[in-house]
Amino acid sequence: MNSFDVIVIGGGPAGCAMAMDLNSRGYDVALCDQARFPRDKVCGEFISPGADPILEKLGVLDSIEALSPKRLKGVAISSYESAELGIDYPVTAGSGLRPTSLSVPRYQLDALFLKRVQSAGVKVFEQHKVIDFIFNEGCVVGVQGWDETKTSFSMNCKLVVDAGGRNSTSLRKFDLKREPKGSSKIAFSAHWQGVRLPEDYCYMHVSRPGYTGISSVGNGRANVVLVVEGSAFSDGKTEKPETFYHRVLMQNRRRSKMLESGERVEPVRSVESLAFAVKPVPCGGLLLVGDATGFIDPFTGEGIYLSLRSSQLAGEVIHAGFKSLNFSRNFLSDYDQRRQQEFGGKFLLSRVLQWLIYNRPFCNRVMKSLSTNRILAETLVGVIGDILPADKVVSMRFLSKLLVGVLTGNAELDLPKVLK
Ligand SMILES: Cc1cc2nc3c(=O)[nH]c(=O)nc-3n(C[C@H](O)[C@H](O)[C@H](O)COP(=O)(O)OP(=O)(O)OC[C@H]3O[C@@H](n4cnc5c(N)ncnc54)[C@H](O)[C@@H]3O)c2cc1C
Predict the structure, then answer these.
(1) Residues 225, 127 share a domain
(2) Is the Cβ atom of 101 under 6 angstroms away from ligand 1?
(3) What is the residue range of 256's domain?
(4) Is 302 in the pocket of ligand 1 (CB under 6 A)?
(5) For 220-266, how does the pLDDT look when each residue is reduced to its tens digit (9 = 90+)?
(6) How would residue 408 be classed by pLDDT, with cut points 50, 70 and 90?
(7) Whose Cα sits closest to atom 41 in ligand 1?
(8) Of 272, 303, 320, which residue sits at a domain end?
(9) What whole-number percentage of the chain has pLDDT above 90?
(10) What's the confidence (pLDDT) of residue 413?
């Protein structure tokens, strides 16, 4: 039976970053993915500027740039058909420059990443679906599954990192997924050609029954993602997904102006039940990274950054585990704490923004505030883009004012004053 120091399940951004990190630290790493690459994925496809230094450290940034991706200068938001407010990423301390975000098809990005993992020396097993773990004294010490010929395989290791995304083996095996009560969401996406985007922004249009993210992904293509409440889509019973997607896109006048000159050039893909939280892993020998640790909503478009960063944090803890030969649950929980410490504020902000965009008067009011205060607007986009720490905008003062404003219908809510 094959034996490795670490087995990584999943070859998305989290799994690839994890495998490269551990490989560069000198560990013998295997990576299994159930898919054959290139494979596609429903995604907004823009990567927070905060990810650039991580991609550079991993040695993949130059190859990504060679794909001729688009570089976006920020986000343009339209609240319930108001004119789009373009907000640039703020100038970063030190460089004095405004960063930009990469916008590149996942079909290309993930395949490139996996190729780099392989050429770095990681043993990559495509079309290897992990279906269960191997245990020794209650700790995970390997995986088993099926390959593309439906032949079973088993591999041993000292530690497994599950980067299998929203349907990962760990979530199913240990029943770790917690989906929020109430209506879930559904996302649709497809590439278009000939779309008229006035500037290099990611265009977010918020209106009923959800929102869209439209951005150029280079080579004349634009990615058009629609996210709606699950209840808005009849599940294909009365309307096909493609018809629903086009109808809702064109319902918003500002959006339809951008899209009317374009045409969809690939089938519409969809993914359901977007948000979920994850309970702690119940055993040693196993860590989760990327979407397998939970997902809020794609509105702030930071999933790839969080995946890359969570793998960096995991790499530090795993390295310490190898030094002390300790992969117990207790030892590995240091990683959960580090993640919580670093991402807690960001998750809170994402939740606040989620709630805000579905409240029309409030969303309009906040957009008005942002339009009159550039510094404030850029600070918010800087936090969303992972180039400023979340505590720049997440404070008890901010949250309580926000709540009071909504509960009392106080139209005087002055966002500049409540943001630190
Ligand atoms: C509608 C939508 C829009 C989004 N927009 C953005 C955006 O604009 N920017 C952004 O940064 N993020 C965005 N995200 C989030 C982003 O797509 C994810 O956060 C990111 O893909 C997570 O990476 P990952 O490596 O954890 O998982 P994934 O990319 O899902 O990769 C998981 C991999 O694991 C493999 N796998 C799963 N189970 C097994 C198994 N049992 N055995 C073997 N292999 C397995 C899969 O084949 C897959 O290749 C969006 C998400 C959605 C839903």
Answers:
(1) no
(2) no
(3) 185-272
(4) yes
(5) 999 999 999 888 987 667 889 999 999 999 999 999 999 999 999 99
(6) low
(7) 130
(8) 272
(9) 74
(10) 44
Using the CB atoms, write b or e for 359-373: b if 16+ within 10 Å.
eeebbebbbebbeeb
How far does residue 41's CA lie from ligand 1's centre (Å)? 7
Distance of CA 252 to the CA centre of its chain: 25
pLDDT tens digits, residue range 364-382?
988 888 888 888 889 889 9
- 328 with 391, same domain: the answer is no
Ligand 1 centre and the CA of 291: distance in Å?
A: 6
Query: Are 190 and 317 found together in one domain?
Result: no
Upper half-sphere CA count for residue 380 (Cβ side, 13 Å): 24
Nearest Cα residue to atom 44 of ligand 1: 33
Q: 169 or 406, which is more confident?
A: 169
CA dihedral 180, 185, 186, 190 (to 10 degrees): -120
pLDDT, residue 359, reads 87
Verify that 253 and 170 share a domain, yes or no.
Answer: no
Asked if residue 78 is part of any domain, the answer here is no
- Expressed in angstroms and rounded, the spacing between residue 165 Cα and the centre of ligand 1 is 5
Number of domains in the chain: 3
pLDDT in tens, 288-307: 999 999 998 888 878 999 99
Among protein residues, the one whose CA lies closest to atom 12 of ligand 1: 303
Regarding the beta carbon of 385 and ligand 1, being less than 6 Å apart is answered no
CATH of the domain at 112: 3.50.50.60
**Domain end marker among 345, 369, 394:** 345
CA 114 to ligand 1 centroid distance, Å: 14
Which residue reads 């008229």 in tokens?
Answer: 196
Beta strands in 196-297 (DSSP E): 201-207, 210-218, 221-229, 263-264, 269-272, 277-278, 286-288
In terms of Cα–Cα distance, which of 394, 398, 399 is closest to 417?
Answer: 398
> Is 386 near ligand 1, meaning CB less than 6 Å away?
no
What would the two tokens of residue 309 be? 């960063």
CA distances from 165 to 55, 168, 278, 384 (A): 19, 5, 12, 21
E-only strand ranges, 273-378: 277-278, 286-288
